């Protein structure tokens, strides 16, 4: 079982519009409502892969109740943490030419009691977990050290933990030696404090994250594939993608693929790449099922092309 923790979940409303004109009345041509948050997406991808997951998330108000209902309708077990504030509602405006404008609300502020209840709920739900995946930003009321505390508690309980966050929360958690961290190129560059121009630059940055405490680093490089850097070696994975439809949730799908394949070694990297490649070829935030995967399109090698320039270098 994979337990996911989403400290700042959301109710995501997406409106399809012909174009976005400031100051004008814009009439939507389509609308959808989805449960949001990186950990929520990991649970959705794990469920699509046919594996059991439990999603821990603070929920409050009408938006929180709707998030729980939507997850339940998708067959995802939810361990809610009741909060007095309302779960945030995010809005995305999808234009016909593919441009996506997102408005993300800050979310509620958790009280000290709610903070402890969230940690306690993770503890109670983790007894049957093979992995805990902690993902996304922290809401108001949770200090940057909150993920570090959660990693420490998970290790005390003997559970492996994967972390997908950024900024001070990532930096502080590295000291507690999370079993795997999953940054993208921008997050790698932010931690090491320098630009990334090549795949080799990304490898060096991942190695520095390991020096700071990460046991393994699963780095998403967008169109350039993924890296896995651990104490047993460094591997590079890529996949053929015929057409990109949406990259929403692709990184979360990759992390789910990595964890359901054991969370270590080149085989898990191949699963991560296959899940990410399948996700970008599906509409919106749809998560791939086993039928969507194309393992034959995936290549994993220990011969990392360190001199290859990144398609989207990080300045």
TrEMBL record:
It is an enzyme of class 2 (transferase). GO terms for biological process: carbohydrate catabolic process; small molecule metabolic process. Its EC number is 2.7.1.56. GO terms for cellular component: cytosol. Residues 16-290 form the Carbohydrate kinase PfkB domain. InterPro entries: 1-PFruKinase, PfkB_dom, Ribokinase-like, Tagatose/fructose_Pkinase. Keywords: ATP-binding, Kinase, Nucleotide-binding, Transferase. It holds the Pfam family PfkB. It comes from the Bacteria. One of its GO terms (molecular function) is 1-phosphofructokinase activity. Belongs to the carbohydrate kinase PfkB family. This is 1-phosphofructokinase.
